[in-house]
UniProtKB/TrEMBL annotation:
Keywords: Cell inner membrane, Cell membrane, Membrane, Transmembrane, Transmembrane helix, Transport. The chain crosses the membrane at residues 40-60, 80-97, 118-139, 172-193. It is a multi-pass membrane protein. It is found in: Cell inner membrane. Belongs to the TRAP transporter small permease family. Its main location: membrane. InterPro entries: DctQ, TRAP_DctQ. The complex comprises the extracytoplasmic solute receptor protein and the two transmembrane proteins. This is TRAP transporter small permease protein. Part of the tripartite ATP-independent periplasmic (TRAP) transport system. It comes from Thioclava electrotropha. Residues 57-193 form the Tripartite ATP-independent periplasmic transporters DctQ component domain.
Length: 203
C-alpha cells in the first residue's frame, strides 16, 4: 500500500488531549479550562468596555455643559464613577477566564507538563478559598447596604444632591462577581486536574 505524500512538510501528530483550536479570536483568548461559563464571562466583557466608553462621553458632555453653557449636571460625576467601578470589579473575573492576571512565576516557569497542570489546579483552589472568603465579607456589606436595622428594604445611597443608590448596586454586583469567581475556580481546578491525569489514562 502506498504512503500518502507529505510534500516535504512535517505534520505533527495530533494530541487527543490538546483542545481543538477556537475559530473566534476573542473566544480563543479564554483558556479551555474555563469551560462554557468562562466563554460566557468573556463575551459579556464587551458590555463593561462599552460602559467605560459611555463614562468618557458623559464626562465630555459635562465639560461642555459646565464650561460652555454654565449649566453643569448633578449626575455625571457619580454615574462615571459607578460605570468605571463596575468595569473594574468585573475585570477581575474577566482576567481569570483569560488567564491574564498578574502572578509570580519564579517556581511556575520551572515546571512543565503534568506538574504545571497540577500547580494550576492548586493555584485555582487557593484562589477559590480567597474568593469565597471575600464573597462572605461582601455578603455582610450587601446586607447592611440593602436592609435597615429593623429589616426593611432600603438601598444605601450616595448622600449627594442626586443621591442615587449606586453604593448598594455596586456592593450587590461585587457579591455576584465573587460568587461567579468561586464557581469559575471550581471548574478550572477540576479541568486542570482532569488534564493532568488524562495523559496517564491514555497510556
Amino acid at each position: 500500500m502506498s504512503q500518502p505524500e507529505n510534500n516535504g512538510v512535517d505534520h505533527p501528530a495530533h494530541d487527543p488531549h490538546t483542545p481543538e483550536p477556537v475559530q473566534n479570536e476573542d473566544e480563543a483568548a479564554t483558556i479551555p479550562e474555563a469551560g462554557i461559563l468562562g466563554r460566557a464571562i468573556n463575551a459579556v466583557g464587551i458590555v463593561f468596555a462599552l460602559g467605560i466608553i459611555a463614562s468618557a462621553l458623559i464626562l465630555l458632555n459635562e465639560v461642555v455643559l459646565r464650561y460652555g453653557f454654565d449649566s453643569p449636571t448633578i449626575w455625571a460625576h457619580e454615574t462615571t464613577i459607578f460605570l468605571c467601578a463596575m468595569a473594574f470589579v468585573y475585570g477581575g473575573l474577566y482576567c481569570v477566564v483569560r488567564n491574564s492576571h498578574i502572578r509570580v512565576v519564579l517556581i511556575y516557569d520551572m515546571v512543565t507538563g503534568r506538574a504545571k497542570r497540577i500547580l494550576d489546579a492548586i493555584i485555582s483552589l487557593i484562589c477559590l478559598f480567597a474568593a469565597g472568603f471575600f464573597a462572605w465579607a461582601a455578603y455582610g456589606m450587601v446586607m447592611k447596604a440593602t436592609f435597615r436595622p429593623g429589616g426593611d428594604v432600603h438601598f444605601e445611597t450616595s448622600g449627594s444632591a442626586w443621591d442615587p443608590p449606586f453604593p448598594a448596586y455596586l456592593k450587590i454586583f461585587l457579591l455576584v462577581v465573587l460568587c461567579l469567581m468561586v464557581v469559575q475556580f471550581i471548574i478550572m481546578a477540576v479541568n486542570y486536574l482532569r488534564g493532568a491525569f488524562a495523559s496517564e489514562v491514555g497510556k
